[in-house]
Amino acid sequence: MSDDGITMAIGRDWPEVREALERLCARFDAAYWRRLDAERAYPAEFVRALAEGGWLGMLIPEAYGGAGLPLRAAAVALETVHACGGNAAACHAQMYVMGTLLRHGSEAQKRRWLPEIAAGRVRLQAFGVTEPESGSDTPAIRTRAERRGDRWVVHGSKIFTSRAEHSDLMLLLARTTPLERVARRTEGLSVFLVDLREARGRGLEIRPVETMINHHTTQVFMDGLELPADALVGREGEGFRHILDGMNAERILIAAECVGDARWFLARASAYARERRVFGRPIGQNQGIQFPLARALAATEAADLAVRRACALFDAGAPCGPEANMAKLLAADASWQAGEAAMQTFGGYAFAREYDIERKWRETRLYRIAPVSENLILAHLGHRVLGLPRSY
Question: Same structural domain for residues 323 and 373?
Answer without folding.
Answer: yes
